[in-house]
Design goal:
Elements: E1 18-22, E2 26-31, E3 34-39, E4 44-45, E5 48-49, H1 57-71, E6 80-82, H2 94-97, E7 101-105, E8 108-109, E9 112-119, H3 122-131, E10 133-134, E11 137-138, E12 148-154, E13 157-158, H4 170-177, H5 179-201, E14 205-217, E15 220-224, E16 233-237, H6 253-261, H7 275-293
Antiparallel strand pairs: 1-2, 2-3, 3-7, 4-5, 6-7, 8-14, 9-12, 9-13, 9-14, 10-11, 14-15, 14-16
Amino acid sequence: MATPANHPISQTDFPGLKLIARGKVRDIYDLGEHLLIVATDRLSAFDVILPTPIPDKGRVLTQLSLFWFDKLASICPHHVISATDFSGPLANYRSELQGRSMIVRRTKPLPIECVARGYISGSGWKDYRATGKICGIPLPVGLKESDRLPEPIFTPATKETTGHDENISFEETASRIGQELAGRLRDITLEVYKRASEYAAERGIIIADTKLEFGMDGSELIWIDEALTPDSSRFWPADSYAPGKAQPSFDKQFVRDYLERIGWAKQPPAPALPPDVVNGTRAKYREAYERLTGHPLD
């Protein structure tokens, strides 16, 4: 029996399709020349996947990514081929795939997380407090947590299969992938951030930072994975922005706060989430989508 499109999905199982990767959120299937990427409703916190899915999360991630890929396509080609044509071997799974899946070009992913920061938060705030820099970039003395930076900066990181990604300098990035390609990644990442931030600001959302990923299709550079979602970006409500502390955000903040409150040791197994935390998190993901796109998820 097919699963309804709005039913939470923790894990996919499509007999006849070859699963090649299962990440924290996405399951990836081999379609030969192309790939099928399915965003589940799994949620991770502190690098541990939680047992409780967040309804609508996968649909928000997919549909918001599609919105940005389309809106910013002039900056860099993206990997999406279709998010609606689930025919042939996918036809039996259309109800599960609809709204949360993309058929994409197969690329060779680059081993760099491309991060643009317009505000100082997260690992950037930690680095700044320790060194006065982020990824080797000197910053003004006296910045407070969540302060806006004088101008957006490119702060690349390694892509780790386990644990946390590690911030690295532009020079280290260039030594890994070449000076020219590193420069292209920097320029594209900052332009995507600039354009998206200007658009979001008109809708009452601050994009504090965002993470992009890229791959190569032969000699062509392709924007892959996801685009400016609550999982890959810090979205802050502009009307409550107050530097000097951590900001409320449109993501899994309800979950992190709950897990801190109950004293979980941040090691598997993770605890189940109560309904109020699930519903609060679901509402924040949906609100981010609706504010940015201008229409409801359904």
